[in-house]
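@here heads up, posting the sequence + SMILES for the adenosine-5'-diphosphate run so it's all in one place. Ping me if the SMILES looks off, I pulled it from an old spreadsheet.
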Amino acid sequence: MASLNISNATKKYDDLEVIHGIDLEIQDGEFCVFVGPSGCGKSTLLRMISGLEEVTSGQIHIGERDVTTMHPADRGIAMVFQSYALYPHMTVRENMGFGLKMSKVPTNEIDKKVNEAAEILHLEEYLDRKPKTLSGGQRQRVAIGRSIVRGPEVFLFDEPLSNLDAELRVEMRVEISRLHRELGTTIIYVTHDQVEAMTLADKIVVLKDGLIQQVGTPLSLYDDPENVFVAGFIGSPTINFVRGDINGSKLSIPNLKTIKLEIDQSIASSHSELLIGLRPQHLTLVESGDLEVEFTEALGDISYVYLKTLNGERIVVESREEKLPSTGALVGIKAKASKALFFDPKTELRVK
Ligand SMILES: Nc1ncnc2c1ncn2[C@@H]1O[C@H](COP(=O)(O)OP(=O)(O)O)[C@@H](O)[C@H]1O
Ligand SMILES: [Mg+2]
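bot reply: prediction finished. Complex structure tokens:
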């Protein structure tokens, strides 16, 4: 087990810099998730940690060791990818032990490690099968098993569940969480799926365009985003943004007249306009208003109501009521004022 420290790390492909000076500290045993849209640099950063990609400048430490220029095999890490190429002609046992066999580990030791890993991954009864007789989730567990047997100090996962169907993804999420609890190993996990990030992580690192936007626990990013990007990326359905005008000390939202929010004098005197973030979870429907119901989604215990303002802005409200308004009806909304988030429309930074 080990902590990990990244200091001012950059990556250039020829003249194109794609990672711009990343500083990050990951604690021993922590489950850290890199999340961000496609192309933001998640895989590149992970591959820099693994040694599969050279670091252009900066340093990477695993525990006390400077691994910046170290060969991947010497770093004490193991990586699990989205495409888990297993050897089709080998059994599960052989697939899992293959890396150790190549490293000339004695057979009885390989057996012991493979059996231990199979027990952790609930793969004991499949050890003598070939990969083609396994389900997608079982194959992915074999790929993870291949890494576990090597006893890495840090596990790196790059979108390991993207190829699996939705139900299996949820199941594997639980498995990976359990695996982390049982092994206690430091994990760095890359995903573009914020729900996956929220459910797995001790610590989330939100990336955009090769830069860290914010680092924090899932709930701190949800409650306390530092900018418009993080507020919009974390949370499902996506947070609603509306424009607010400041006149004197009063904040009014032209398109949502039923919502009354207080702002501090200091904000009022330094801004004439704000971008207001209202999460669907913090809004409730009221009877009279000028918002048109476009459609509703009933999921059982909760529903989402999609509304349109007079000038065409979309607003989503989460509802726990059994009776939903009908499409085309006019309704109003109220907001939990303490949960409203204010942003500067120009800098897109949070205003507190
Ligand atoms: N080998 C490469 N050569 C040039 N550009 C690359 C290479 N690999 C990745 N990139 C670029 O680096 C950026 C980050 O890519 P990547 O780390 O794969 O993003 P993510 O994993 O977040 O989707 C992208 O703009 C991508 O086009
Ligand atoms: Mg990637």
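MO: The pocket of magnesium ion (ligand 2) is lined by residues 42-43 (CB under 6 Å).
MO: One more: The two ends are 39 Å apart (CA to CA).
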